[in-house]
Design a protein that fits this description.
The structure is a homotetramer of 222-residue chains.
Chain A (H helix, E strand, L loop, with lengths): L8 H29 L15 H9 L2 H25 L7 H16 L1 H10 L5 H27 L11 H23 L5 H16 L13
Helix pairs in contact in A: 1-3, 1-4, 3-5, 3-8, 4-6, 5-6, 6-7, 6-8, 7-8
Chain lengths: 222, 222, 222, 222
């Protein structure tokens, strides 16, 4: 981040480059805050009078849906951050539409703590089906927003640096095409079994986080 | 951000440039945190004994004022961030008054989650009129603080880089003049219809976010 | 922030410079988060059945202690951030003690939302005296921690860049000497009148924020 | 942070260097947020009708477990931040596994506010033993995750800059080997005396923060 005293034609070019940097830095901030805020939705359990360590242990273990939600949401936001970093490596400059689409995408990411909190409260209790559908459904929406953010700058290589090989873009295209579909399928599983739906999402997050093929980055859904 | 070992006259110049950078980075941090904190004001609904998925679905839908408040506040803070970025591109250096006015403006931005939470709780319920007036009123106050932040460095081009064309400043002047007026009008609408007032603010936020005229940035109220 | 591949003697120098940068960036993050977290201590008021807009208006106005606490704490943390920026402009490199003292100081800053929340709940109610004493007392403690953070690098110019004029340091010395004393006096006023004590702290914050003498920075207590 | 328009073979090298920078910046964000979020787990005490300053003072003092937890967690996260900074000074480039292990480690760090909140609520009350075991146990888990993050890039100097002396790595190896063991021992002390266990963890945090041997950094457990 450098301050640019010039606003002439050359300055505009620099300003554009700076746009990308500051856009990435702002996005990183939102990612970092959303991922760290997840924890404040998990509240310490309360004991009744006369209860002690055994009951506290049981109450802490009974919070497993909250831990599971934290784990899946943390990994998923983490993967989204990694991908955001990855795709902005291809983008040479910003324009107002890219900024608008990025804002829309961040709106989705920053919302994630809410369905996570709903899931933590209802998984394993009556209402868990709707909680799991809302949780997976929101990730599906977020994956669609992520696709828009990726499609716009790559359409006719609108904002892509000239020396980025088309093959690199196509590889990301293929991965991003799968994202909303995979999330939708995982979400619909909740109609039959909410815990299974969550389990699939956890496995997906772990699979996407773990690299494969000698240093290459694993495909990610969104 | 570079560490500056020199504090001599030349060092002062560099320090001033660094001021802008660190001021922008600090402001970005406050923007990013305020925008992401909005979500923690939305709490999961609670069900009574014997209630399940249908009631949870209904309870989640009944939170629409919270979602609407989140949407408007997120977009509005996002637009303010974009504009902040934009106007600091014209500012060549800081001085203590600019820092003070920026602090005042950030104080307004960081306060936004509170009227948003009030709105989320009262829209659609008794008290919604005051909630909507407080919500819109605070954006009006924030728009005024934003105008002060913009008027000070541009007055007689006090802190403006020499090569910034006056036309660029005048264009922002025109837009910023409208900000407090538009917000005030939208706020006063709440006297007649609180939901309409919110609807207008949502439309404004979307209009300001969506770019127009081939890559140009849309006019923004604040 | 640049990644430094070298860890030899020359690399150490660079690493030290980078230390200052990353220490400042981390501190900025804590400042920005602490200042923005203040708002979540203010909760929307709750109405009884049958109450509406007039009662909500009254309930919002009755939260004035919360607004006052937000205002004072925001301005004070803002001033501390400005000063932190200012004094690190003189510091050429870090060492482990500086990092430790900076951590201790940030611990004090990050704690501020708690006494602010206590003040918001008790000012104007029974217990307000202890709340005001705790509030002012914590700022006194923070001012002392800030003095330690400033005294250590300046003692015999231990970590100060060679070309910083001694007069610049002496000026900060004079200001920092006053800090804990002023806060202590303002705190003890709460023994007689808690609201007066808060009023003095608000005036102090405004005085310190407003620049004076043609572009110079106002003296700050801590 | 510089925007890199090139994505050719040379660009890849630069991209890797940028990876480290952005990975560090993102990690710094998570550290700064987690450390600052600790405070919102401490809530103002509530008084009964007719109670005033003496009862508030007593209630504030009765929150000592919350202050102790804040102190230990803040210092420990602070030390982890310092160490993170330190070890990334040795790492020349990232790869997907390093990113994955760093995400896992940050997941542990961002979780710390929860066991801290449990400790604050139960220390000095029935259930304190489980609370102290959970608290220390989580730091043990975090120390293990930190070891994984350190072992991976240093194994056969996989991602280490060539000019980093092996002795520097070995020194960190020795320190990191102790981390999980020390935390495990401190945790198990809670089986006999929860307060003693916490006291040991506080002493450890202070010892690790305070530098020794003329400017050298103290050994740290994790």
């Amino acid at each position: 981040m450098t301050t640019n005293d010039s606003a002439g034609p050359a300055g505009r070019e620099t300003a554009n480059a700076r746009d990308t940097t500051r856009l990435e830095a702002f996005s990183d901030g939102v990612f970092a805050i959303a991922i760290t805020l997840l924890i404040i939705e998990i509240r310490p359990p309360h004991l009744a009078d006369g209860e002690g360590s055994p009951e506290l242990l049981q109450a802490l273990l009974a919070l497993w849906p909250a831990y599971l939600g934290y784990l899946i949401s943390f990994l998923t936001i983490g993967i989204m951050w990694i991908n955001h970093h990855h795709i902005f490596g291809f983008i040479a400059r910003t324009d107002p539409w890219l900024v608008a689409l990025n804002t829309l995408f961040l709106l989705c990411v920053a919302f994630i703590p809410f369905p996570t909190a709903v899931l933590a409260e209802y998984l394993g209790h009556p209402g868990q089906q709707v909680a799991a559908l809302a949780y997976g459904g929101w990730f599906t929406v977020t994956a669609i927003a992520y696709n828009l953010l990726w499609r716009y700058p790559t359409y006719r290589r609108r904002l892509i640096a000239p020396d980025v090989p088309q093959a690199s873009l196509d590889e990301v295209h293929r991965r991003f095409n799968f994202g909303p579909v995979i999330y939708l399928v995982a979400t619909l599983l909740a109609l039959f079994n909410p815990v299974l739906s969550l389990g699939v999402q956890l496995v997906l997050a772990i699979v996407y986080l773990i690299p494969y093929r000698g240093g290459g980055r694993a495909p990610e859904p969104a």
